[in-house]
Amino acid sequence: MTFITVHRTARADVARARTGVLLSNLGTPEGTGYGAVRRYLAEFLSDRRIIEASPLIWKPILYGPVLTFRPRKSGAAYQRIWHHDHDESPLRTYTRDQATQLAQRLAVDDVPVAWGMRYGTPSIRQALHELVEQGCDRILLAPLYPQYSATTTATANDQAFRALMRMRNQPAIRTLPPFADHPAYISALARSIDTHLRTLDFTPQMIVASFHGLPKVYVEKGDSYAAECERTIAALRHAMGYDAAMMPLTFQSRFGPAKWLEPYTAPFIESLPARGITRIAVITPGFISDCIETLDEIGNEARAGFVHAGGKELALVPCLNNSPDCIDLLENLVRAELGGWLPRAGAEGAPAVTPST
Ligand SMILES: C=CC1=C(C)c2cc3[nH]c(cc4nc(cc5[nH]c(cc1n2)c(C)c5CCC(=O)O)C(CCC(=O)O)=C4C)c(C)c3C=C
Ligand SMILES: [Fe+2]
Ligand SMILES: [Fe+2]
Question: pTM of the full predicted structure?
Fold first, then answer.
């Protein structure tokens, strides 16, 4: 193996002792065109944490029908939700904003914050090197998923450890645990839902909580994701005073022919008008940032299906995104995890950090 020597790595110079935070998220294509979306999907769907099937079986399917047809369909969906002013996806805008604002909160403790994407750019490797180059010898990896899944949290951390494998002087590492029913997450969610519902000119008869789905077999093999979604929704119902009939749990984003977690969001929503439920709100507590899954799959596709089935109103409640509540939450989670690593600025033998060249 070739080791990468990053300039200003920590151990060679203890005077540069510093703690950093790396926020990671899933990733997103560079553009909405066929080529950009194909490159993104090829990287995403080649991850063995995402598709566990043998590559001998999966690769011909991936490089055959999937990467021939899916980029056009997904590209059109990205185009509908694209942040054209910044020429980037919403997930990218919100993740960057979260990192920038969290960095402002942590500047007082001299803790830099970098952000990276599991698929696409900026990569988790780039973000890690950015922190090491700023003299960080202690790094908190913070995958921005409230509920753990091997397909999200674990693969984000794997990617950071792949980059660490190539460093001669590794920083010390901590990872942020999932925060499915953390009181700070539940109260931020409850407050944002409540605030949004007050802006509506109708009272929803039901608040559907739609989470990203997962193949059932992954859960049967031990992925704790489904149990974590249950924990989120139980805590949220409790906090908001709703029962399961008023706030049902559903799963979206099924991909491929296998069985995924049920009930599926789209058919569930489409069944409601026949039961006299024509005015609903949808929340997506498996995402802290709006993305193609929330804005297009729910905000466009599910809404169209609901209206087609006789529904009158569907209000999509925004994710926490770059709201002050979201930054408060991230600061709260991160500071709790940095216990014992802060404060070090001004500690004896730890002079101020001044990156050298
Ligand atoms: C094919 C299998 C997939 C698994 C397993 C999966 C798990 C999973 N994903 C998220 C969060 C997000 N997924 C997003 C997009 C997305 N997801 C899949 C497939 C799987 N996800 C695909 C193919 C795509 C791309 C879009 C599309 O073509 O439909 C996103 C949004 C990214 C964006 O740029 O907006 C997020 C976020 C979770 C939480 C999860 C398991 C729990
Ligand atoms: Fe996904
Ligand atoms: Fe989707």
Answer: 0.93
